[in-house]
Specification:
single chain, alpha+beta, Alpha-Beta Plaits, 26% strand, elongated
Length: 134
């Protein structure tokens, strides 16, 4: 197997990349929860708190990627947590007010992907004019 000439060992070390440039993460699928009978004012408050929680976890480096699915279906969104275990990801997910209220639930899966994901938030900050949680 040939070693690539553009390899940057300092970046690879900083991102905790293996020899293939990848790391272990926990991927989570966000789904509609069993408790969806909140009134519209409560739903709006939960959504705002949900987005604020996403922003906080992202700033802490624990959440690398998140976003909603565009269909109005039971499957609501995707998260990629920058943690080693499903237990750690579950603990972080439990900080979400919408999950606490039962409006949303998560399913967790170990996932192996590019270590460059750890730089995604910094790149996103450079192209986003607005803060999604505000």
């Amino acid at each position: 197997m040939k070693i690539k000439t553009k390899f940057n060992s300092a970046i690879a070390k900083k991102l905790n990349a293996d020899q293939y440039g990848v790391s272990k993460y926990i991927m989570a699928l966000l789904k509609k929860g069993p408790i969806r009978n909140q009134d519209s004012v409560s739903v709006e408050k939960l959504q705002k708190a949900h987005l604020e929680n996403i922003s906080r976890l992202s700033k802490e480096g624990k959440l690398l990627l998140t976003g909603p699915f565009l269909e109005d279906d039971d499957l609501r969104g995707i998260y990629i947590f920058n943690v080693e275990t499903i237990e750690e990801a579950k603990s972080l997910a439990e900080s979400d007010p919408a999950i606490k209220a039962g409006r949303l639930v998560m399913e967790f899966y170990p996932w192996y992907g590019t270590a460059a994901l750890k730089q995604l938030s910094e790149l996103h900050e450079s192209i986003s004019k607005l803060d999604i949680a505000k």
